[in-house]
Amino acid sequence: MRTTLDLPDPLFRDLKIRAAEEGTTLKDLLQRFVEKCLYEKQETAPQPERSPLPEFFRSPLPPPREGGTPIPALTNAEIEEIFLREDLEKMGYDLSKVKGSIFDDTP
User: Fold this and answer.
1) Structural domain of residue 24, as residue ranges?
2) Cβ(54)–Cβ(68) under 8 Å?
């Protein structure tokens, strides 16, 4: 099958030089390149070995114990309420006297 390729002049010149050096035609050279690209198994570059994280990236927390008490999952709203409660207590508000608000622990 015939096809037309638009190649930049420097690339075409290099292809012609390569074909002449190998004593082959431009058609055969291009066919070999395409077949090699399509059919040969592509080898991936080896991944560099990763070094361990430096000490300052490691968690200062000890690993969890087996059979320990599970930590309950909290919603974003519950976490925000905890932060708000802590902030208000730091500012001196007595939240035990507040009833009917998000801080009321009774249902």
Assistant:
1) 9-39
2) no
